[in-house]
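Trying the structure run again after the queue cleared.
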Amino acid sequence: MYICKQVSPEWQEDNLFYTYKDKNGKYHLGWNDDIYEENVIIYGNDEYHYSLTKEFEQILKISESYYEYELSIEPKSNHCYWNNVSEYINYYLPKSNGKKYSTKEIHKWKELLEKFSIRWKEEDIVEEALQLMTGKKWRSFKMCGVMQREWQYGYASEEITKEDIEYIEMCYFNTGSEYQFYESEEDYENECPTTSYYVNSYNSKEELLKHIGCEPNELKVYQFTGYMKLPQYKEME
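Done. Tokens:
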């Protein structure tokens, strides 16, 4: 008989994220699952942690070099560092695989960069830029928590499913439930969990059965219902 016991909500942790500080002391999200690291970007609401890919960071830095882009259109200028637009684009917006852009791709970049001053950070522009850099199709998404202020934007590559986004949203805003897994009643009595699962709290038993791969009659699930406060006494002197 397998047993799952819910962790008290104030102590639960998802198994998808960890946080780390960058050199400027700002916190960012790290991923415990490698597939998300290069395929999901979380960015938009400064009140919450970000997770950026190297390609997206380059896109954000374009504003710092946009003057150079304008000069690269007229490479004969004495102030220009580039022989042509292609050199500029391959340097500041390199492909993930290290290859150079084709002539067709350079023309596409020029179209995107011409829109820079008006609406560079709009979703369709970023999606096209990411596709040029990574070779994958990208789409924007929005995540929401329970409270009105709990929201965040992001981008996901074609490798990420709708279900993946729902799971990320649940972990990001901590709206799921963590359950410790015990392989036997003896392990449960001795408080020796094997692992833990973070699942949707509204459908927890069904999801736990799917994770474990057992039949309903092979699993006991104990939900957290609160703490019991007991009175304590000592003998009066």
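The radius of gyration is 25 Å. Worth checking whether this holds up in the mutant runs.
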